[in-house]
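Continuing the batch. This is chain 6 of the set; chains 1 through 5 are on the previous pages. Same settings as before, nothing changed between runs. Recording input and output for traceability.
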Amino acid sequence: MSFNEKLDRVTVRAEELKHLLSSGDLSSDDIVKLSTELSDLDPIVARIEELRNAQSEMQDLAEMMTDPDGDGEMKEMAEQEFRDLKEKLPTLERDIQVALLPKDKDDTKNAILEIRAGTGGEEAALFAANLFSMYQRYADNQGWKIEILDSNDTGIGGMKEVTASITGKGVFARLKYESGVHRVQRVPETESGGRIHTSAATVAVLPEVEDVDIKIDAKDLRIDTYRSQGAGGQHVNTTDSAVRVTHLPSGIVAQCQDNKSQHKNKDQAMKMLRARLYDHERATLDAERAESRKSQVGSGDRSERIRTYNFPQGRVTDHRINLTLYKIDKIMEGDIDEIVDALTAEEQAALLAEIA
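Output for chain 6:
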C-alpha cells in the first residue's frame, strides 16, 4: 500500500467514525470506543490536511513560476515560497509516518518501577538509592505521583531494593526504555585511596495492569504473612502485617511490608504481582519480535547493560544509541528528557525502517 493510500484510509476512517457517532444508535461502550479511536485519528488527519494543503499550494506556485505571461517579481516570490514548502514537506511526511506507527498498547498505562542493587556491595545500594531519587525528581517534574510499595533500606542511605508505583499521563511510554543494568563509576565516600569503583543496579519498569488485563486464579496463589522488618533487622511493628504472594504456576513472587495494614500490603503485593505476570507475557512477545529486529532499544532485557554514569568525568553514556552527555549532575537531579527523547526517536526510526 502506498503512502497516499494509507493517508486516504485514515481520512475515510475518520469520516466513518464521525458518521457513526452522529447516528445516535450506539451503546455507551461503543461511544467510548469510537470516540477514543476518533480522538487518536484527529491529530493525524490535521497533519494530513496540512500536508495536502502544502502540496496543493506547491502546484499553484509551480504554475505561477512557469506562466510565460507572469510578472517577474511575482515569479520570484512564488519560487521562494515553493522552496520553503519543499523544505517543509519531508518533516510533515515524517510526522505523519511516525503518527501512523503501530502503537504500544501499554504506553498510556501507569508503571511499576523496581530498582535492585547489583554488584558492588554498599556502594551499589547507595547507587540504587541515587537512581530512585533521580526517578522521583523526574516524576515530580512531569507532574506524576510516585508511591513506594516496598523497600529494603540499608540504614545508611542505601537501598538494596525498592518498588514504587508511578501514576500520571504517559508514564510507561516515557520510562519503558529505562529497564536494564545501570552502571556507576565513582570514588565511594568510604574510599580513602581515591580509587574509582564500579558498581551496578538493575532497573525494571513494568506497565501497571488491572484485573481485566490479566486473570489470576485464586487457587494458583500462596499468601504468607510475616512480621515487617526495617533496616538492620529492626521491627517496623509487632504484628504480622507484611504480605508475600507467590504465583505457584510461574514461581513469581511479590511482597509488601511498607504499610501497617495487612490488607493494604496485600493489595499492593497483588498490584505488583499482576504487573510482573503481565510483564513476563510482554517480555516473551518482545523476545519473539526482537529476533527479526536489528534494534534492541526498548527490549527490556534486565541483563543488558544499558547506561554508565561516570562521576569523575561528569558523563552519562547510553550504550544502546551511543549517546554521551556531559551533565551528570543535571541527570541525577531528574533531567533525563534528552535521553528519553533520543531513545524514543531511535525506536521510531527502527520501526520506520521495518515498514519502509
